[in-house]
Structures are given as structure tokens and as C-alpha cells.
Amino acid sequence: MDIFKCKYITHENEEIMGFCLNQNCQNTTQYCYKCLTTTHSDHQKDCIRFSEMNQYIHEFIQIYHQSTKQFKEISKSLQLCFEQILKIKEQDVKNLEKMIQQLQNKEYLVVKSQINIIKKMFTKEKENQIQKQIIYLNEILVTIKNMVTDLTQSSNERISDDEIKNEIKNDIKNEIKNEIKNKIKIKELQDEIQDKKEQKIIECERFFNEGQALQSLNKYEEAIECYDKAIAINPNYDVAWNSKGKLLYYSGLALHKLEIYKDAIQCFDKALNIQITPDRLKNKAYILLQLGMTLEARQLYLAALEKE
Ligand SMILES: [Zn+2]
Ligand SMILES: [Zn+2]
């Protein structure tokens, strides 16, 4: 439930306590304890805890119930008034039509008893009155229509379940898309690394084979150079270490035999660190014998025999 953890940096993952109900507040509505003392500090009274929300909502429901009752009463009264008004108007029209008849029948005295109505019409007093009434009623109608618009809008402000569902769906879709993208990237990277590894292995082997070839042609110096190149690319290339070691003491290149033996021992040690084989143990034992270290040489030789 991501939305109930604070997302502000330095208090991310703090527990959300409630909602800020301040209309003018520009911060995220939900707040954690740290938000309360920082981003909402100037209107803490508007920050309502989840537990308090129930009470507020109950109060709002009360207000809605009361006002609905009042609205119904007003609507009923309005309906009654309009019914009366329409009835009277119908009656007025009937009376006027009757007057036409009375005039035709020359019942002048009867007409005279209602002459005030005609006078009012004649002076436009009645007409003006009717116009004013229509204007008033239209004003009331506009007010009521505005109320309906307001109520419709506020019900639209509520996010529907479907909207939330869609939002979550989109989030998941995007996450999956990103995951797939990341997977592709990781695969590409792995492939790249694999390619580089394979290239290195091929290069190492190439130098090693070249070394072997040079060695068979008694070109010891150049052969050692090739083994060095192979080892430089892959310091764990034990075969090259072993070959270099052997070549060092077989070749008899150096004037300073002691130095060569030391280097050869280092090469065999490198090779042995990666993999102990009887032949590598024997190689090191041979050098130790040359150096007069018979006891150590014997131990290595016995270890080699055990492994064979
Ligand atoms: Zn926070
Ligand atoms: Zn706030």
C-alpha cells in the first residue's frame, strides 16, 4: 500500500497519520508526523487523523440529511404556489374571455364591475407586473441551476472506482513495460560481457598457442613474451603461468640463474593457486631441488605422487 507511506525525501516510508483538509494547502494531502511539523506546520488544526475522520463524515451526513429535508419542503411549497398561480391565471383568462362575451351581449354594467382589470392592462401596469414576476422567477431559476451545477461538479470530484482501477492498471502496465525494457537491457549487457569474455579467452588462447609454437622453434624469449601477454589479459590463466615457469628454467636464458628460479617458483605458485596438478607440483619441486631445498622439494614430490 504505497499511498499510505510518506514519499517526501528524508521522511519517505514514515507512516501516514491522516489527511490535511486545508483547501489552500499545496502539499500532498496525506501527512506523516514529520510532514505535520514541516509542510503543514502553519495549519496543523486542519490536519485530521484517520480516527477523527469518521466523526467529521458523520457530521457532514447530518448536515446533508437536514438540508435535504429543507430542500424537499421548499420544493413542495414552490409546487403548490405555482399550481395556485397557474390556476389564478387560467381563471383570469376565463374572466377576460367572459368580458368579450359580455361586451357582445351589451352587458355593460357587468363589464363595468370589472373595469379595473382592463384599466390596469390598458395602463400597462398589469403587463409590467407580470414582466417583473417573470424576471424574479428567472433569477430564482438561475440560482437553482447554479446549485445543481455545483452539486454535479462536487460529485465529479470524487474519483470513481473505475478511474482508480484504470490508474492502477496503467501503473502495472508501465511497470511491466519498464521491467521488460530493463530485462532487455540486462540481457544486452550480459551478452556484451559474454562477448568480451569470449574475445578475451580467444585472445589468451591465441597468445598461448603462439607461445607454444615459438617454444617448439626454440624461440624461448619470444615464447615467454607471448605467455606474458596471455597472463596480462587473464591473470588467472594457469596454463600460461605453468608454461612460463617451465620455460624459465629449461631455456637457461638468464645469466643469473637464481633470479630465474625465483621467477619460475612464482609462476608455478600462481598456477598452483588456481589448480593443483601433479605436474605443477613436480615442476616446483624440481626448482626447489636446484636451490638445494631438498626437504620442501621431497614434500612436494610426494604430494604430486599422491595426486597421480
Ligand atoms: Zn512526511
Ligand atoms: Zn496542509
From TrEMBL:
The keyword Coiled coil applies. TPR repeats lie at residues 204-237. It comes from the Eukaryota. InterPro entries: TPR_rpt, Ycf3/AcsC/BcsC/TPR_MFPF. Keywords: Coiled coil, Repeat, TPR repeat. Pfam families: TPR_1. Residues 179-206 form a coiled coil. This is Tetratricopeptide repeat protein. It comes from Paramecium octaurelia. The lineage of its organism: Eukaryota, Sar, Alveolata, Ciliophora, Intramacronucleata.
